[in-house]
Amino acid sequence: MSNFSKSEKEIFELRKQKISFFNEVSSKSFPTSYEGTVDIQDIVLKHQDIEPGKHTGIDVFIKGRILQGRSFGKLSFYDFLDNTGKTQLLVDKSNMNRKQLSLFENYDSGDIVGIFGEIMKTKKGELSIKVKSSNILSKSLRTLPEKWHGLKDKETRFRQRYLDFIVNPDSKRTIEMRSKIINLIRKFMESQGFIEVETPVLQPKAGGALAKPFTTHHNALGLDMYLRIAPELYLKRLIVGGFEKVFEVGKVFRNEGIDQTHLPEFTMMESYEAYVDVNTVMDMVENMCLHIFDELGIEKNIKFMDTEANFSGPWERASMYELVSKKFKIEIKHDSDIKKIKSSLKNQLDSKPEAESIGLLVNELFEKYIEDDINNPTFVTDYPVEVSPFARESKKKPGVTERFELFAFGSELANGFSELIDSEEQENRLKIQAQKKSKGDEEAHVEDQDYVEALQYGLPPTGGLGFGIDRFVMILTNNPSIREVTAFPHLKPEN
After folding, report:
1. CA torsion, points 233, 238, 243, 247, in degrees to nearest 10?
2. 304 lies in the same domain as 439
3. From CA 70, how far away is CA 76, in angstroms rounded?
């Protein structure tokens, strides 16, 4: 109890002593279960319209947590919270036997109790449960913070998330909404004929994306392993193996920075479908998102922070090369002379670009000057080959791949492409990535000879998708930080 102040320690000890009291007063204290109860939400829905001052004669059992209490002579009122909502308890001391009254007088804010009482509405119009009896289910030894004064600090809220969920209903509703969204994603994918699979979280090679991995060690095998940065390469092995439509919802890990839209541990949905290209993937992700909007009853014109966007379809599809050319009023193609382009851009840029090829330059300019300003959902296409090691090169446009990234409100929501199926080309690209890694690029891809060997058995034309669930939940719940939509975000230790 070293983290207690003197006053907190005293409160803790006083509350602890009450455990013996409850056991002595009632044999029903601290039961192993409490059944036959009604949800507060159902009570509110069915009885909200009763007249002030009316007693319904309907008795119910409810269970939940006692919050703040207030006394006015013989009447006491308590806020009472369960999983579905909040109501008021009314305790009439003149109508309660001594034993039951002594129980209630010893409850503290935070105690979890079972209540038996009558549904009624006070003269002031407050829907209430008039308590007839109660028993304690679990004792709260610590004092709950006040809603607005005790738990406003964000770091405290995230560090003690369980308290945040108790006193801040919006935080709890966000996590409930997240669950609904993930469930709808699963149902949509299954309705399209996909099967959900599970791939290794611990992998001998960190592959499938350009990112720095977390490293660990497998003692039994005697080798270093990596928390996956993407399930991609294993999902595509399944396509090689004869599965035609697969998806996975799961955690991925990238040992990188933390900000409003990035966490080192986040949730993705990845899918792969044989015999389709990137256009089918774009259609699918748009249909999936619009389906979720409809199922949740969310308007397609939505506001996220101080910005509005229209998610009504069809969503715009725009070439990265065209967006950059339009932004800087200069035509840039895959075969443009990079020196001439850099010279033409010199007076329009904040700093000298580092890119050494046209493809890398276009990508650098897009990321730095354009993507943050994309609000309406937009599929940005024609990604350069240099930044797309697993995407198939376009047959119509040299130097670019059949790849897209979906942006909305300045944030990337999804990444998809026509998968590279040529084993020799894939091997060559991985060798280039390995060279970058040997020169110190921690995000470069490693060579994965087993994956190349799998491709040698034949990967059919395939469309792939990586969809960022956390950011999508941020938009649908109007939360500015990815930590708000994560039940337990990682934080630095206090000490």
Report:
1. -50
2. yes
3. 6
pLDDT in tens, 415-455: 999 999 999 999 988 888 888 877 877 767 677 899 999 99
Counting Cβ atoms within 10 Å, is residue 177 exposed (0-12), middle (13-18) or buried (19+)? middle
Handedness of CA 174, 176, 178, 184 (dihedral sign): negative
Task: Enter the tokens of residue 408.
Answer: 């909305």
Q: What are phi and psi of 11, to 5 degrees?
A: -60, -45
Residue 450 belongs to domain with CATH number: 3.30.930.10
Distances in whole angstroms, Cα of residue 195 to Cα of each of 39, 191, 272, 383: 35, 10, 10, 29
CA separation for the pair 168, 150 (Å, rounded)? 11
**Residue type for position 350:** D
479 within a domain of the structure (yes/no)? yes
Judge whether 28 and 45 are in contact, CB under 8 Å.
no
- What is the Cα–Cα distance from 388 to 390, expressed in whole angstroms? 6
Q: What CA–CA distances, in Å, run from 188 to 76, 247, 249, 274, 375?
A: 50, 11, 13, 18, 25
Q: At 76, which CATH number? A: 2.40.50.140
Q: How many folded domains does the chain comprise?
A: 2
Q: Are 153 and 168 in contact (CB under 8 A)?
A: no
Whether residue 437 lies inside any domain: the answer is: yes
* CA nearest to 332, candidates 306, 357, 298, 367: 357
Give the number of other Cβ atoms within 10 Å of residue 471's Cβ. 21
| Domain presence at residue 246 | yes
Q: Cα–Cα distances in Å, from 118 out to 83, 88, 244? A: 20, 12, 58
Strand ranges, E, within 24-123: 55-72, 75-81, 86-92, 112-121
Residue-range definition of the domain harbouring residue 106: 6-144
Q: What share of the chain is helix, strand, coil (3-state, %, to 5)?
A: 35, 25, 35
Element (H, E) at 457: none
Alpha-helical (H) ranges within 275-346 are 278-296, 320-328, 338-345
Let me know the angle formed at the C-alpha of 373 by 368 and 376, rounded to the nearest 5 degrees. 140
Distance of CA 177 to the CA centre of its chain: 10
The pTM of this model reads 0.92
Quick: pLDDT tens for 107-163.
Answer: 999 999 999 999 999 999 999 999 999 999 999 999 988 754 445 677 888 989 999
Q: What φ, ψ does residue 423 adopt, rounded to 5°?
A: -65, -35
Q: Write down the residue that tokens 């928390």 correspond to.
A: 227
Q: What is the pLDDT of residues 357-402, one digit of tens each?
A: 999 999 999 999 999 999 999 999 999 998 988 899 999 999 999 9
